[in-house]
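Hi! If you just cloned this repository, the fastest way to understand the data is to look at a raw example. We've pasted two of them here, unedited. The first protein comes first, obviously.
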Amino acid sequence: MQQAKAILANTALLNALQLLVHQAGEAIMQVYHTDDFGIETKKDDSPVTKADLDAHYLLIDGLAKLTPNIAIVSEEDPASQAVPQKHNCYWLIDPLDGTKEFINRNGQFTVNLALIENNIPSFGLVSTPIDQTLYWGGKHLGAWRLRDHTLEQLHTQTCHVPMRVVASKSHLNEATRNFIASLGETTLVQAGSSLKLLRIAEGEADIYPRLAPTCEWDTAAAQAVLEGAGGKVTQVDGSPMKYGKTDILNPHFVASS
């Protein structure tokens, strides 16, 4: 957490990182307003667009200048996944989280930038390009949201009755339905990409069970923000999430207030 504290204490660096994530969002929106997204299919059968790649190059170039001593792992650079085996501190980025949402033009996509220290996300920055809202924070460091020039500190809320469950229609598998059923009376909150975790940080939801595949870059930045707001993200058995694994896939997890 030493680097995360140093970033928050360095106003100029924090502002530069916020601007960088904002610029990545602007690059994404430039593609969003065109007719050709340049959609291709990656080896894992997931889609990638010109927006993913434009944001990727902007972020890695900017981070290399701002923090030249910190290595970078990006979803759009498969070779970079070897970085955690040699570095215990590195940036983990998802240049465009929610590519399918982007393609569907529903606005539910984000830019994710996380700092990983000793296998945990110590600091996270998340931008929502559609409205350029910015979230940042980390465990024991607090969490903030900048929206429409208004800065607010974020705090999770005590659980509501009925419990507000974040769930995605596209990932509402049988295991997730059974988990939700075990909670008793609930209402569903819809959100895409890392916005699911942020809804809990904002006090707009109580719990998010994820019993379907995700990758480390999908969750790290928003996990840091949620933890800064007072929430938590654990594996289903209650054990901590671990980052920098040889396998980039996350275990099933539960995020909560």
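Ok, and the second one:
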Amino acid sequence: MKSGKESGSEKLAGNFNVRNTCPAAKKCGGCSYAGRTYLEQAAAKYKKVQRLISPFCDVMHIYYCDDPLFYRNKVHSAFKKLRNGHVICGPYETGSHRIVEVDSCLIENKTASAIIRDCAVLAEKLKISIYDERRGVGELRRILVRTADATGEVMVVLIIGSNVFRKKKIFTDELLKLHPEITTLLIDINKRHDSMILGGTEIRKVMGKGYITDIILGKKFRVSPESFMQSNHKMAEILYSEAIRLADFTGNEVCIDAYCGTGSTTLSFADSVKSITGVELNEHAYRDALANTSLNKVENASFVHADATEYMERLAKQDAKIDCVILDPTRLGTTSKFISACKELGPSKIVYISCCPETLARDLKEFRDKGFEPFIAEPVELFPWTDKLETIVILSNISKTRKS
């Protein structure tokens, strides 16, 4: 197994033996490998990737996380008021909307966890109206906390279920006294009756810029409440560095980066290629990506607000010249139409970054059927204790390989 660091062997050996002993693990369901040591869970994940991906190509050793606790930089929680007036917070029990009350979490950023617990205490103390999901009434509903490891900035989004938050001032004033490390505080109105955390219609700024800034591989990234960023900062840097290394760019490539989010992949790759275009459907993430490009003064990167599959199909119809396609989709993977468009475009290389080995294996089979041969895969552990694992796969266009 590879380490995220080359030194500090005593520390690394100790982290291999760290065991997830969270008492709420069985109910919460967030940590699929609770009860095991970090080494045991990393080995189990690697075995799974080998089983699913080795039929397509060689699987390199897993790049493990040398700090597998308290890494998650995006944390959200729901609130509930019990009959005795006690306000609890925590994740939902697996397959339900029953809150699992927890005092701390082994994978959540410690600052984020402390802010969430203190919000529950304040809500009880100030007799804040707590949203009732069954009746669809009440004010304080959920909370979202995002932290930036490189800059120390902290964003808090209070999600309310009504147009008014009557005790907003006293609640936010007390919260900021308890946590002066908060750099931006927002209120989101969410009257939806589904599982979406944010309402998606209106976010009100209470304090700060309305976003936080993090730094990955020397580039600054603006992160808004809705934006996608990898939840493990240290390992995200390793993931992108390894993807760039394995891609072995010449510097002359014209690239497409599909499902690009706020542009962290796009801008990280930009220094290694001639030009790169990020494609993102989420409007908030797209806007952040544009801002990030200006912030970092990157001149060879651009962004398109579009569905990745539809954009690729448009490029294929235009007979565009693309040398490399990079994709980092959700755990659902990509689409058959996307893969067909890749065949039409005929890039020499595809860099596929996946957080779900099952959908990755499904897509690799279809890519291979369309003439793209996977030739190396490397798992990178971004999500210790969970069932997720990032895997980088490099695919080569068979027709162009034969010609060369």
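That's it. A detail worth noticing about the second one: The first helix runs from residue 9 to 16.
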